[in-house]
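=== Structure Prediction Worksheet ===
Name of assembly: unnamed complex
Input type: mixed (protein and possibly other molecules)
Chain count: two
Listed entries:
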Amino acid sequence: MNQYEVNFIIDPVLSGDEIKSTAGMYESLLKDQGCSIVHVNEMGLKQLAYSINKKSSGFYYCIEFTTPVGSVISKVELALRRDERIMRFLTVKLDKYGVQYNEDRRSGKISSYKKKESKKKPFDGGAASTTETVQPQAQTPPVPQPVVSNEEE
Amino acid sequence: MASRDDIKFLSNPSIGQQKKKYCRFKKFGIRYIDYKDSEFLLQFINEQGKLLPRRITGNSLKYQKLVAVAVKRARHLAILPYVTDLLK
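=== Predicted Assembly ===
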């Protein structure tokens, strides 16, 4: 029994029900072929990194399934290729680490990678201080600012 | 008089030293690289969306190959761009 996952991008022009029925169609197709669905990940509407068929966004779906026979893959891929509603698809065989990773991901052990926020403060501070010094010269300063008082001293 | 020991630290001693690079996958025990996680894969590509070499990322050969496969899969699914400018 090998575990696979098939990703596909559905045309965003379709209505919400049509998108759901499209995904449901492939789910039932896999089930008819004797596969057992492990998980269906609906990633939702996402911006594409580059335009496909002159569209800049798409509906991402990912279906994980196990199958005893590999010939299912070619049948599903043929159906995906013929479907006009599918913009792009990718089928991947998962190794044992991939299966483990997806399980952990679902149970919440692994969260998606977050970029560390290491924005350098001195730059913002410098920009803010310059605006502060400019403003008192243009306007009559009602509140004495600490920067100006330091300069006078 | 300043002896030799005082003069030694007039400049930052850590400036000339290179930090030893390491493979993050081996160090933290990451066995699977998710091609759907674009934020993670951004660490291994440059501003033009090209793969960074091993000599910069420090990955071991085994995981560099897996990173390359993951990035290529992400590009196919339009999670990462094939060509771009100012990605980061």
